[in-house]
Design brief:
The complex is a heterodimer of chains A (90) and B (438). Chain A is 43% helix and 14% strand. Chain A is built from four helices and three strands; from the N terminus they run E-E-E-H-H-H-H. Chain A has a three-stranded antiparallel beta sheet with strand order 1-2-3. Chain A is globular and about 35 Å long. Classes of the chains: A alpha+beta (90), B alpha+beta (438). At the A-B interface, loops of A face helix 5 and helix 6 of B.
Chain lengths: 90, 438
């Protein structure tokens, strides 16, 4: 299964964080640096394994922790409707 | 027999946040136009086809709402047919149960201007909503935005306190020692100009029931996000936190991607360039305490005089002072074609309501708008024998010159100036752009 961010959502990257706006719900989401990195990777379709591997090269953390973190983040992004075809992805 | 009531079209040109919008209102009863001018008068520009407009809207008014149109009924109608705004690069449409407008943009001389038409119930609520939608939609396209917030002038700077309903915006406004320092208790305009961010008052108010007194903007030094607390404290916050909070307080109706991206970019830039704090305030803390706590976050030179951004702002502020004090003395700089006025002279001006009706020979001070805000001018004219009907080209008549002071001596200019003024020639025009150190 792969995941991709909703291409219709406006966002702005700050120094380390990223702000994502959902015009439909008028909700604003602030992503921390790690989540912002995943958000950048989600510009193209990515699997959990691919995301965890990419983060593994940049962050000093055990692989299982990274994978769990990625899964939790993707769930959160999906619940907030920030992923393309979130319903199918879940 | 009932007297016929005039419902001819009327022009209302407003400048809010430095953006100029022109309404051609058809079918308005005179009393309704008076209502509009009472509300928006501080932001009204003298009429002139040559004035550069960001949007022009021909608005046909429907008949007055029936007497039974209570607030409850209006609320129910608004819930049934709520506001819908769609915006594209060159098109803006907005509709609600009580209005419908559509504007199209076109490029002219390197800028995009919008024009269109619509219909609207002859209700101040409907007209106000139309204006809020248009200015909120167009300001981000000019590098600004409308913010839900209380704006206060402090010394020579402006501070915005954004907050949602119930955050304490009106409470803060009510505590201001001088109500004229309140730019609005509900919605202020911010915009980045050449010299940085500025905050403008608006005619969009909340329970404070009055808005800004002029088009004058002030350097925006700090954004203080309101938070009700037990003691007054100002806590600096990061620009990303500020952006997130600001996005919750900016007035936006369009939900298309381009509009949201534009607003997001404006918010990010503002929060990156202007200090932000969480303004923890109590209901009873006096304004002086608020600004004492805020002082470390206002930056240096709070009292440094910053001139108005342009001649339009300057004259608008002059008009506000004149309306408040009813008379005003100042020393203009400019050129004169009349022997009665020389460089260095001081003028005393009275509002037109004082001193009786206008009469030939009176010397009148008027605001002549220019194509751009920097080209607005004050000018003096002598009222010709044909009277006030020939004064349409003079712009807005602000007052009557009652006195000229030169070398410490006063030279009266009697209202019905008589032989003295009549000897000055048929017309005395005096551009006076350079007032107040400009």
């Amino acid at each position: 299964m792969t995941y991709k961010r909703d291409p219709g959502l406006p966002f702005q990257t700050l120094e380390e964080e990223t702000i994502v706006v959902d015009p439909k719900t008028r909700e604003v989401h602030l992503l921390n640096d790690t989540a912002a990195r995943v958000w950048a990777l989600l510009a193209s379709a990515q699997s959990v394994d691919a995301l965890a591997a990419a983060l593994g090269e940049e962050y000093d953390a055990p692989a299982d922790e990274l994978r769990a973190g990625v899964e939790e983040l993707l769930r959160g992004l999906g619940d907030k409707g920030l992923l393309a075809g979130s319903a199918e992805a879940r | 027999m009932k007297a016929a009531r005039s419902t001819a079209s009327a022009n209302l040109t407003l400048s809010i946040g430095g953006l100029v919008g022109h309404l051609e209102i058809e079918g308005a009863e005179p009393i309704f136009l008076e209502q509009l001018r009472a509300r928006y008068g501080a932001f009204e520009l003298p009429d002139g086809d040559w004035v550069a407009r960001d949007f022009s809207l021909r608005l046909k008014l429907d008949r007055l709402p029936p007497p039974g149109a209570s607030a409850t009924k209006r609320l129910a109608l608004t819930e049934a047919r709520p506001l819908e705004v769609t915006a594209a690069a060159r098109a803006i449409a907005a509709r609600r149960w009580d209005f419908q407008v559509r504007l199209a943009g076109r490029s002219s001389h390197g800028r995009i201007t919008y024009s269109g038409e619509g219909r609207c119930e002859a209700s101040p609520f409907a007209v106000d909503c139309v204006l809020r939608v248009l200015f909120a939609t167009l300001l981000p396209r000019a590098g600004g935005m409308l913010i839900h917030g209380c704006g206060l002038r402090h010394a020579a700077i402006g501070v915005v306190f954004p907050g949602v309903s119930g955050a304490g915006k009106t409470t803060l406004a009510r505590k201001a020692p001088d109500a004229d320092d309140v730019l609005s208790d509900e919605i202020v305009a911010v915009r980045r100009l050449d010299d940085g961010w500025r905050v403008f008052g608006t005619p969009f108010w909340g329970d404070f029931a009055r808005g800004g007194i002029s088009m004058r903007s002030w350097p925006l030094r700090t954004v203080g996000f309101l938070n009700q607390a037990r003691e007054v404290a100002m806590t600096p916050i990061t620009s990303s936190d500020a952006t997130l909070r600001l996005l919750g307080c900016f007035l936006s109706f369009a939900t298309d991607r381009a509009s949201v991206e534009r607003s997001l970019a404006v918010a990010v830039q503002l929060c990156a360039e202007v200090r932000s704090v969480e303004a923890n305030l109590t209901r009873t803390a006096p304004t002086a305490t608020v600004f004492r706590k805020l002082a470390p976050h206002l930056g240096p030179e709070v009292t440094r005089k910053v001139p108005p951004a342009n001649a339009r702002e300057l004259i608008s502020e002059f008009r506000a002072v004149l309306r408040k004090q009813r008379s005003y003395a100042f020393r203009p700089k400019g050129s004169t074609a009349g022997a009665w006025l020389k460089s260095g002279d001081a003028l005393a001006v009275q509002t037109l309501g004082l001193g009786g009706a206008l009469a030939p020979g009176d010397v009148l001070l008027s605001w002549i708008p220019g194509p751009t805000p920097d080209e607005d001018a004050l000018a003096c004219h002598r009222l010709p024998a044909s009277g006030a009907r020939d004064t349409a080209a003079w712009g807005e008549l602000l007052g009557r010159v009652t006195l000229v002071a030169r070398d410490g001596k006063t030279r009266p200019l009697p209202g019905r100036v008589g032989d003295l003024a009549r000897s000055f020639g048929p017309l005395v025009a005096l551009p006076m752009l350079r007032m107040a150190g400009r």
